[in-house]
Write a structure and sequence with these properties.
The structure holds two protein chains of two kinds.
Chain A (H helix, E strand, L loop, with lengths): L1 H16 L1 H21 L2 H4 L5 H5 L1 H23 L1 H7 L4 H21 L3 H9 L4 H26 L5 H16 L1 H5 L6 H10 L1 H9 L5 H26 L2
Helix pairs in contact in A: 1-2, 1-7, 5-7, 5-9, 5-10, 7-9, 7-14, 9-10, 9-13, 9-14
Chain B lengths: L4 E16 L2 E13 L2 E5 L6 H9 L6 E6 L2 E2 L5 H4 L2 E4 L11 H11 L6 H12 L14 H13 L5 E5 L7 H15 L3 E6 L2 H7 L2 E6 L2 E7 H6 L4 E8 L3 H9 L3 E7 L7 E8 L2 H11 L4 E6 L4 H8 L8
Parallel strand pairs in B: 3-8, 3-9, 6-7, 7-8
Antiparallel strand pairs in B: 1-2, 1-4, 4-5, 9-10, 11-13, 11-14, 12-13
Helix pairs in contact in B: 3-4, 3-5, 4-5
Classes of the chains: A mainly alpha, B alpha/beta.
Chain lengths: ~240, ~325
């Protein structure tokens, strides 16, 4: 646990030490606020709900979280520090979990920075706190999946942009599986499988305040799967 | 220097093999590094030095072979053994956004050490002379200071074995002298395994030499041993007034073990350098007479590490 926290702390430190961190902490909440209050129909509906705020989250997470994780491994590979890490008395799983915990910490800070949006809505009307909390929990779990996939793809390339683009593309595709399932030519069994794998569909039920064990297991299982793959990539590099 | 104790081995490598696809980087290498000695891992670029070092330090797994550090199997022992090793990789990778202080504190913590962090950092900063840049970011440090930081991170946990991969690579002459002095000082206290292709560095620093060439160990021993192991051989530069083929067939009967072809100085001349047996000077002369060739030059070369290195690693040479 000591090593996991050590590496998580380092990632957090790099984030707050660089201008990128502050840009993310300002730009992301500002964009979400603009989408929700200005581009959306919040004022027209005259209803104190954050439904439209959470509606944007799957796509926002698909773009934001890979930006947070893109440098985490690829920069280690590019700078050669990955070799140094592998020679230190640290287990591969501690390295992977340390980076992941670091990414979750950045995600938490970024989501915290959006708290002004529900606070503003709560100021304007009665908000169902439970639904908001469930929405944030769902967003965090969705973000965890995005972070684990982002880290996996970052570990496969020394180019941060490639890591970001490939992660974002896969995550967007994972959010469109349900849409693909509606095509007439898709057999019912395949359509069902595509819907079951759609990130957005699992998230939307949580954003409505429904916390289903199946959704939780889906997010946790997918996160674990990508983290294990990340560990396997590092192990394979030892055998390159 | 610490007096080398050849009965206790810091490193024992047997039958080490590693291939990258179809390229065999190591082809069954054996070598040892006794506790307290400075062992130089010598060889031309591409000899397999860095591959061997990466396997020793745990950042690469071999295809076959065993690695023992202080008697324990390094491939099975896990993390505790790594705490006894300090490593400065080739090209000295560091985190550019971190300060020197942060880098060393991070390395200390990552080595699993707790408590006395700052006293350890201060100790190593003083020992490698990093005081002027202590609070500076790595990206703002000169290459010489960055090399010192790399050395400091390798020493922060006071390891028993220090492995340095090309520690003076890319430094200016003054920085080379400074880093060599640090390594010499290090050799008085710890077991050091040093890779290099700079021969004066080996002669200045090492107690023992392991010479690698094309993934194979060519020679191993103390400096005195390896420069005399080929005592029966002496290197000559031979020039004859004949074609390259004439020269080759002449040397084949002269006891020459290896030769390098030189550019013909004219269409009627060929020139080559050869490693021959000690009595081969006479043998070459007699062979030239027998082949009706005129010897334009027969110059013995000194029996230094340089001539040994040259003689044993001429991969492009004509084999006779």
């Amino acid at each position: 646990m000591y090593n996991i926290l050590l590496f998580a702390k380092r990632e957090l430190r790099v984030f707050v030490d660089t201008p990128v961190g502050y840009v993310v902490l300002v730009v992301f909440p500002a964009t979400m606020a603009a989408l929700f209050f200005l581009a959306g129909s919040f004022f027209a509906e005259s209803e104190a709900t954050l439904r439209n705020f959470f509606m944007w989250m799957p796509i926002a997470m698909a773009l934001l979280v890979p930006a947070l994780t893109m440098r985490m491994w690829s920069e280690e590979i590019r700078e050669g520090t990955e070799e140094l890490l592998l020679t230190w008395p640290i287990r591969l799983r501690e390295l992977v979990l340390g980076k992941f915990l670091g990414a979750l910490s950045l995600l938490f800070l970024t989501l915290l920075a959006t708290a002004m949006i529900p606070m503003t809505v709560a100021y304007l009307g009665d908000v169902d706190g439970g639904v908001v909390l469930a929405g944030y929990c769902g967003t965090f779990l969705l973000g965890a999946v995005c972070a684990s996939l982002g880290l996996l793809l970052s570990s496969l390339t020394r180019n941060q942009i490639v890591a970001w683009l490939s992660s974002a593309a896969i995550l967007i595709a994972l959010n469109l599986l349900g849409l693909a399932a509606t095509a007439r030519s898709i057999p019912p069994a395949l359509a069902h499988a595509l819907e079951a794998l759609d990130l957005g569909l699992h998230f939307y039920s949580m954003s409505r305040g429904v916390i289903d064990a199946a959704d939780l297991l889906f997010f946790l299982g997918l996160t674990l799967f990508f983290l294990v793959c990340n560990g396997l990539v590092l192990e394979r590099r030892l055998r390159r | 220097m610490m007096s080398p104790d050849s009965s206790v081995l810091a490193v024992k490598v047997q039958g080490l093999r590693k291939s990258y696809g179809s390229i065999a980087a190591l082809q069954g290498v054996d070598f040892e590094a006794p506790v307290g000695a400075v062992t130089a891992f010598l060889g031309p670029n591409g000899a397999g030095k860095t591959t061997a070092i990466r396997i020793l330090t745990g950042s690469l797994l071999p295809d076959a072979g065993s690695v023992h550090l202080f008697g324990a199997d390094a491939l099975l022992s896990g993390q505790d053994l790594k705490k006894r090793v300090g490593y400065l990789p080739e090209n000295n990778p560091l985190w550019p956004e971190m300060t020197v202080e942060e880098t060393l504190a991070f390395a200390w913590s990552a080595q699993g050490r707790v408590g006395h962090k700052m006293s350890a950092v201060e100790r190593v900063v003083v020992s490698v002379g990093l005081e002027p840049v202590f609070r500076r970011r790595i990206q703002e440090c000169s290459k010489g200071f960055r090399q010192r930081v790399g050395l400091a991170q390798a020493l922060i946990h006071d390891p028993e074995l220090v492995i340095l991969d090309e520690p003076t690579n890319g430094l200016d002459p003054l920085q080379v002298i400074q880093i060599r002095e640090l390594v010499r000082e290090l050799g008085r206290q710890k077991t050091v395994l040093l890779t290099t292709h700079v021969l004066p560095e080996v002669e200045a620093l090492a107690d023992r030499v392991v010479l690698l060439h094309e993934g194979e160990k060519v020679v191993e021993g103390t400096l005195a041993e390896v420069t005399s192991v080929k005592a029966g051989q002496q290197q000559f530069k031979v020039t004859v007034n004949g074609s390259e083929e004439d020269l080759k067939s002449m040397l084949a009967t002269a006891g020459v073990t290896r030769l390098e072809s030189g550019p013909p100085s004219s269409s009627a001349q060929a020139q080559a350098s050869a490693v021959v047996l000690a009595d081969g000077g006479q043998g070459i002369f007699e062979a030239a007479v027998k082949h009706d060739l005129v010897l334009l030059e027969l110059t013995p070369r000194s029996g230094t590490l340089e001539s040994l290195f040259y003689g044993l690693t001429q991969a492009e040479g004509l084999h006779v």
